[in-house]
């Protein structure tokens, strides 16, 4: 794990131009390792995200006896062990900062008959896990958390799981995926009903591996006991990583940037919808399909943004992009209001508080509310802000320098490597005046 002293030092101004491809989608990279490991046969992945989070998933499956070659330049070859082929690891599985690894693995491992422990770093050990342990208990699993409902999670062997009909209490793809993955090992049918659409990569990828998943309206069902057939996976560039550049190029005068091969899954494209409502100039071209996921090239040019009331139906579709969107709001004319985003408080950091604090340091009138923020757009000054060890907070404040009147320094940026290794280099190539240093 990288150190907490890593700092971004970003000089003001600049424009983002050229053509870039941001790293692979984190959600899809995790799932490629998970399903590839449980499949019969060899799964070949390209475009895999070589970030700490997805590498934590990869190491976890290696520790459970799966032979995995790579990653080499985003290429990974997984020698699947079949649905019951995993072995108990010798040590607790350390999932670092990765909520997706912990919540999805809790489901996937609950019915394997193995005894094992899932741990994580300080941030992950403070995040809510009852949202997964409770439905798993309803299925007959024994997954024990600490009294506070947090990790470590101890998974104990059980004879069988049974299917449940589960209504998601929060709009969470991680909880949905956890229950569906446990459902692969359950008797009968497992169904999950979601109150709002959340990312559907698990459902799509299961189908790519030949597993039948049925969706009727907002209800998704599968039957346990089936097998997964290995396949090839082309991971698109992560729209959540592209988001920093979509915002950066929108707010920086003279920007004209093309982002290549970006995942455009309709459960993930809220950032484009919201930026367009604010007046952004984003052109979508070369729309195509990459292994069951839509992808496209995005051209974004500077445009004057204006404040909006963000439609609540866009919140789950842009859930990871609000740190960047708050920076867009700070540079827009007028007021932007976000509501219905309580989930932001239990991400890698409390993203409402962390962003409001940092924006206020930069002279922005940003008022946190329980479920969102009210931001008055205006001028940004420089200053030193804290990322709270949260990758998306760090990258968002780096982009804010494009419109600040003096330097922005961002503390505690090592965690950028969880989702976006090479961010500093790529952002600098595109035109951000960023230097990464220590102390
Ligand atoms: C993810 C789901 C989202 C998202 C996270 C990745 C996934 O979390 O914030 O970065 O891969 O399923 P929730 O499902 O908890 O909202």
Q: Could you walk me through the main structural features you see in this protein, from its secondary elements to its overall organization?
A:
This protein has twelve helices and 25 strands. It has 439 residues and is an alpha/beta fold. Strands 23-24-1-25 form a four-stranded mixed sheet. A four-stranded mixed sheet has the order 2-17-19-18. The chain has a four-stranded mixed sheet with strand order 4-5-3-16, covered by helices on one side. The longest helix is centred in the N-terminal third of the chain and has 13 residues, at 26-38. The protein is globular. It starts with 5 loop residues before the first strand and ends with a strand. The mean pLDDT is 97. The chain binds shikimate-3-phosphate.
